[in-house]
Amino acid sequence: MFLMLGPCPYAIAMLSVPAVRWVTRAELLPGLVRSRKMIERDFHRDLSLDRLAQIAETSPYHFQRLFKVTFGESPRTLQTRLRFEHAYSSLQKGASVTDACFRSGFSSLASFSRNFKHRFGVPPSKLA
Questions:
Q1: What is the pLDDT at residue 44?
Q2: Residue 57 — left, alpha, or beta (φ > 0 → left; ψ -120 to 50 → alpha)?
Q3: Interacting residues of 112 by C-beta distance below 8 A, sequence separation 6+
Q4: Which whole number is the average pLDDT over 13-34?
Q5: What's the confidence (pLDDT) of residue 7?
Q6: Alpha-carbon gap, residue 99 to 120, rounded angstroms
Q7: 109 in helix, strand or coil?
Q8: Residue pair 105/123 in contact by the 8 Å Cβ criterion
Q9: Helices (H), 42-108
Q10: pLDDT of residue 89
């Protein structure tokens, strides 16, 4: 009798890393995952591409290319998306627009409000 298991999540993740050799993929994936976790944990901070690349143990150019191919979005796009999601959630919980803006890591209230409206279709003041 055979036990049918689903595909291994780690192996599936390794398939998304753009490298010819499986060993290279296995070397690159942990660093990419560490850098992604850092972005997810510290999205509200300014994170330099150099620092993220250092965590992934690659050059900044190579890191940015690998990250985008592996995860489907650039490190900056991921960080911005997480910031907007946090701000949206904060506004729904009753935070002021200014609080939501700065606690999510944005540095300009005007830019935040403009981009928030573009992204969600309503100004942040409608949710506050």
A1: 96
A2: left
A3: 87, 97, 101, 104, 106, 124
A4: 77
A5: 65
A6: 18
A7: helix
A8: no
A9: 49-56, 60-71, 75-92, 97-103
A10: 96
Tens-digit pLDDT profile for residues 66-118: 999 999 999 999 999 999 999 999 999 999 999 999 999 999 999 999 999 99
pLDDT at 2 over 60: no
Asked if 97 and 66 touch (Cβ cutoff 8 Å), the reply is: no
Token pair in block for residue 106: 């944005």
Distances (CA, A) of 127 to 10, 44, 67, 106: 39, 20, 33, 17
Q: Decide: 91 and 97 in contact? Cβ < 8 Å.
A: yes
Query: pLDDT for 26-41, tens place per residue?
Result: 788 899 999 999 999 9
Distance of CA 121 to the CA centre of its chain: 22
Spatial separation of the C-alpha atoms in residues 39 and 111, rounded to whole Å: 21
Look up residue 121 and give its amino acid: G
- Rounded Cα distance, 126 and 97, in Å: 9
